[in-house]
Design brief:
Mean pLDDT: 95
Low-confidence stretches: none
Number of strands: 0
Number of helices: 1
Largest sheet: none
Order of helices and strands: H
């Protein structure tokens, strides 16, 4: 079997380098995707807390209104 020519070696090395770049780009994309998912979860948790606080405030306000109404009826 004849030895590889310089062109064949260069082509093989270029293919390996290209494959490495593709793998690194895919890893970077997956990492960014995971970061975005984590960020989305954090935003959802924060929004959930805001909704809970607003609901509690509304319930307290309703109870105060009912209390005032009952006191005025007496």
């Amino acid at each position: 079997m004849p030895p590889e020519s310089e062109l064949q070696i260069s082509l093989r090395n270029a293919k390996i380098a290209n494959d490495d770049r593709k793998i690194k780009a895919e890893r970077k994309r997956q990492k960014r995707e995971l970061e975005l998912k984590e960020e989305t979860v954090q935003i959802a948790k924060a929004n959930s807390k805001k909704v809970t606080v607003a609901l509690v405030i509304s319930i307290i306000s309703l109870l105060m209104s009912v209390s005032t109404f009952i006191q005025n009826q007496m």
